[in-house]
Write a structure and sequence with these properties.
about 260 residues, alpha/beta, Rossmann fold, six-stranded mixed β-sheet, four-stranded parallel β-sheet, 11 helices
Length: about 260
């Protein structure tokens, strides 16, 4: 059984990396919609169309379950996609609830794309779990651009983060929620700026656990499995066959793993 992952671009590789580690005997498909990235500054209807196309493609390639490994795509399209397709669909949710439960005293900064911050899904989540109104919302659209260009350690990315975070007294915060999978590539830059006590949280582990639960519950595990993890990559529906792109994706998976400890 193949497990499909889709993202607006390379952010979802952070999720795929953990799924490959947790489920080493499965076969994976990864759809990077790089022709249409970024999603976070586009109209909602346009993003729903892109997500629908990606999920339809992955289903056509034999995916028995699909992870929308993109917070923005999840926030605007998950309900529509679950109604349109009969196979299990797993989405991303910002780690707001874990952040509030782990840090009951100080404030929490939630970072995401502009579209995610505008959508009802995030605000409904905050209504459910942030009873004391201890969260603040911060859009970081340019981080997606830097990520897609592979400029994770560039001075401009660090300067951008320094500028946008300068408006907050970070000593008053206990956690920053990374509400976009692209943001995980920049944990090293965050760590250069934020106080040591501020924890960086994301929803990746929770998403992978939910995927594993869904696979087990629906008995979707393949009878025969490859000896090593098998991943097939697509860019907006086109197979990735060139060495340069595959090497870039491999480097991104390695960076995703290295950023986990920060």
């Amino acid at each position: 059984m193949k497990i499909g992952f889709m993202d607006s671009g390379i952010g979802g590789l952070n999720v795929l990396q953990q799924a490959v580690k947790a489920m080493p005997g499965e076969e994976f498909l990864y759809y990077a919609d790089s022709d249409n990235v970024p999603y976070g500054v586009k109209p909602k209807d346009e993003v729903i169309h892109y997500v629908d196309s990606a999920v339809g493609f992955l289903a056509g390639q034999g995916a028995g379950a699909i992870v929308i490994a993109c917070n923005t795509a999840t926030s605007v399209a998950i309900d529509y996609i679950r109604q349109a397709y009969k196979l299990p669909i797993i989405g991303m949710e910002p780690a707001v609830k874990p952040a509030i439960e782990k840090h009951p005293d100080k404030r929490i900064l939630i970072t995401a794309t502009p579209l995610s911050i505008k959508e009802e899904k995030l605000h409904n989540l905050l209504k459910r779990v942030d009873n004391n109104h201890r969260t603040d919302l911060l859009p970081l659209p340019r981080l997606v651009e830097y990520a897609e260009a592979g400029r994770f350690d560039a001075d401009e990315a660090y300067t951008y983060l320094t500028d946008v975070l300068s408006g907050y007294n970070l000593e008053n915060y206990s956690a920053i929620v990374l509400g976009c999978t692209h943001f995980n590539y920049f944990k090293a830059a965050f760590r250069r700026i934020i106080p040591a006590h501020v924890e960086l949280l994301d929803g990746i582990d929770g998403t992978v656990r939910q995927l594993m639960h869904v696979i087990e519950y629906n008995k979707l595990t393949a009878a025969t499995k490859p000896e090593e993890p098998l991943v097939t990559y697509y860019i907006s529906g086109k197979p990735v066959t060139d060495y340069k792109t595959r090497k870039f994706y491999s480097a991104l998976m390695s960076r995703a793993e290295s950023m986990r400890i920060l």
